Amino acid sequence: MTITPDTDLIVVGAGPAGVAAAVMAAGLHMDTLLVEATAIGSKLTVIGALNNVPGAWTSGPELAAAHKQDITRHQQTGRLTLLTARAERVTGHDNHAELTLHDGRTLTAHDIVVATGVTALTTTDAPWITTPQPLPLPPLWRMAPGDLSDRATIVLGADRPLGTWLRAHPDAPVRLEVLHPPADTYKTSEVRDDPRVSLVPVTRAVLDPLAQGQVRVTADGPSPGGYRRTAGAVVTNLGSSPAAPAGLNREADGYCPPDRQHPRVHVAGDLKGARMQRVSVAMGDGARAALTAYYRGPAVSGRSAV
Ligand SMILES: Cc1cc2nc3c(=O)[nH]c(=O)nc-3n(C[C@H](O)[C@H](O)[C@H](O)COP(=O)(O)OP(=O)(O)OC[C@H]3O[C@@H](n4cnc5c(N)ncnc54)[C@H](O)[C@@H]3O)c2cc1C
Q1: Which of 140, 259, 283, 304 has a CA between 20 and 30 Å from the CA of residue 190?
Q2: Is the CB of 67 under 6 A from ligand 1?
Q3: Class of CATH domain 7-120+240-305
């Protein structure tokens, strides 16, 4: 079936990859629809300290604000539309691609760029953690120092954002007890000498919610049941998994390599693989995805105006 797509390009996700794709496409006079579930640069807004980013930005909120301005500028040209909605499924067809939204609407374009990034793992994703019921614990990297009291905070997992968080808040008077499986000890080298951190290798941790937001944590380490604490502040730091809408081709680890997708569906940024999850890589991916759609055609509505 041949249809006339609603627009030239749909970009899903307004992080660094999606913003780069949208800005590149709109700059090339492609009619572009940017679909974002929450807010432009939502992840960047909670990253206190950035490094190795194009433009030498050192603060995530400032880069997110710059992204917003870029999107607004292109919205004013009439070539870029921002839609706040959650994408559910992406489907490639011979002459178009289709995006199904959470509310059931279907949108079509010549091509779709998917740049939905990764999402923080929760306690139910970690085989070494047992909870009698799902506990909505926040990830460490979303916490401001003021959110954590001067009493010890229990951190579940030793993933990379721990070091980033401590670097971002060098003077925060926190005490972090970091529980992690012994196999993850290699992840702790960056924080091992920070006096604010106690590293506790554990093979199993059981979390029991108590009254008034307290959580009892009992863990096997160094001896069975050898770690017992009750704390008000328990946060996760368990790593992340791809936030892929349905319809993409995935590897066993859930990531979506660009070369495994339908030719009209382009994956960019953190979603493509666990390696090189960096802002600069995401921006490069996004720009490349938009250019791929632009040069491949077919007829792009605004192209004659360039
Ligand atoms: C604590 C921390 C510190 C970091 N520090 C650095 C650093 O110093 N330097 C560096 O280069 N990188 C750093 N990174 C990595 C960097 O943040 C990522 O590589 C980058 O944000 C990836 O961009 P992205 O556009 O692929 O994904 P994201 O930034 O994750 O953006 C994805 C967007 O897609 C949206 N989305 C998700 N699912 C859907 C859906 N179904 N429908 C619609 N929208 C959706 C999300 O709301 C989000 O806005 C850090 C990451 C963390 C967590």
Answers
A1: 283
A2: no
A3: alpha beta
